[in-house]
Structure formats: structure tokens, C-alpha cells
Amino acid sequence: MSEASSPVKLERRGHVGVLVLDRPDRRNALSRDALFAIGRLGRELVADPEIRAIVITGAGDKAFCAGADLKERQGMSTDDVRVQVGLYRSELGVLDRSPKPVIAALNGVAFGGGLELALICDLRVAAPHAELSLPETTLGIIPGAGGTQRLPRVVGEARAKEMILLGRRLDAQQALAWGLVNRVSPEGVSVLDDTLTWIEPIANGAPIAQAAALKAIEDSFEVPLELGLELERTRYDETLRSEDRLEALRAFAEKRKPVYQGK
Fold it and tell me: Which fold has domain 207-254?
């Protein structure tokens, strides 16, 4: 598949790699080709030493991602669907396992698999008109790309059950109040541009420290406090051995901004 025909576009904005779901005619739905493209481009960005953060967004201003491509699903057997659900784990899992922070810029609706894609990300920024929902139980299924597992970890069990069992749809401000998104962009401002400005501390930050902090949080999320503290100590030690830490000390002494090299 040529880059021009790919359902996902890759842009580089300085130290940030931007993945754009580019199927506006299908509300940026997740086809099989789109899943493979996310996996391929995600691996490329994770391996790129110049990239310090990954942003994923959708083309247009109506949909971040409306979920699975139901038109494509109509021609699938039950076993085909099982294979497709497996691709959510293998291909979107590239972003889930990324040592670099991943941020969703929700430029419109994020329904079903689209919200599950956003939940894989470390941070979420929503346009004021964005809407978020996991409507699967109203369609006779359940969220199958991690929604039943990740949503409770973000908003809590009770609110996750409310969203999933009632198929409840949240607007951007409700999602912010629930902690489902971290930020709502101002009216009239591109959510992608706002996101890139907001994450400048990551893009210009110390990549070794960023990765170590993410790993420490993720490793200790469901372990006893004592083990979590030991895991944190191990990750902290990684930063002590970095050139970036010495650069931070020099910059502080010289009263300037540090220039991190990820070394």
C-alpha cells in the first residue's frame, strides 16, 4: 500500500510524530488496513530516536474515530471477526507498549473502538464538540478492544459500568469532569495545534526520564506499595546514569533551559 493510499498518515512535527486516521468518509473507522497501518507506523515512531512523543488524531472535524468499520464487518464470518479483534491487541498494542508518551487529540466523536484507541493513550485532549461513548452493549456485544479493562482504570468501576451498561454518551466537559480526558481545547482552536502546544514539556523534555516515569507507573499499578516503591527506585536509577540528568544540573547552574539529547 502506498503512503498516498494509506488510511493512516504520518506527520513529523519536530520531536512529535503525528498519526492521522485519514478516512473521513467513514468517520475514520478502524478497518483492517487502518489497524495494520497504525501498527506499522507506530513501530516506526517508537524506533525513531528523534521522536519523543506520539499524537494520534483523526482527519476532519467530525470524528476522531467512530469505532469498527461496520461496513467491512458485514462481510466477515464469526472467525474473521475474532481475527479482527486480535488485531486490536497486536497492532494498537504498539501504542499501548510505547516507551514514549502517546496522546490522543480527539477532534470529534470517539465511539466504540475509537474510544478504546484513545484509552490506550497516556493522555487525551478533546475538542469542545467531541463526544465519547462505548455503545457496544446496545448492539449486542461488549467492548472488545480493552474497553472493559481500561475504562474502569481511568474513571473508576461505577462510572465505567454506567457508560458501558447504559451506552452513555459523554460530551467533552462531562468527560473532563470524569477524568476521561485531561484537557478540553478552547473554542475555535485546532485540537491538534492545542495538543502540540500543551505537550511541549514532553517534546522538549528528557526522554529517558519520561520513559522511566511511564514504566514506573505502569509496572506498579496493581502491585503492593512496597513493590511499587522498589520498582520506582529501579527506574529512578536509570535516570541517574543519563547524560540528560547532568545537562539539567548544568542548565540550572547556568540559568538556561536544558537541551536534552535522550542519552
Answer: Lyase 2-enoyl-coa Hydratase; Chain  A, domain 2 (1.10.12)
At residue 99, what are phi and psi to the nearest 5 degrees? -75, -10
Torsion of CA 162, 145, 8, 55, to 10 degrees: 60
Give the Cα-Cα-Cα angle 160, 166, 172 (nearest 5 degrees): 65
pLDDT tens track for 157-215: 999 999 999 999 999 999 999 999 999 999 999 999 999 999 999 999 999 999 999 99
CATH number of 8-203: 3.90.226.10
Residue closest to 19 by CA, chosen among 120, 142, 102? 102
- pTM tops 0.70, yes or no: yes
Give the whole-angstrom CA distance, residue 36 versus residue 44. 12
Encoded amino acid at 85, one letter: V
Give me 16's grid cell.
512529535
Following DSSP, what letter does each residue of 64-106 receive, concatenated?
EE-SB-HHHHTT--HHHHHHHHHHHHHHHHHHHT-SS-EEEEE
Q: Which residues are catalytic?
A: 116, 136
In 3D space, the residue among 80, 65, 52, 51 whose CA is nearest the CA of residue 23 turns out to be 65
Portions of the chain given CATH number 3.90.226.10: 8-203
| CATH 1.10.12 domain span(s) along the chain | 207-254
Lookup: cell for 4: 498516498
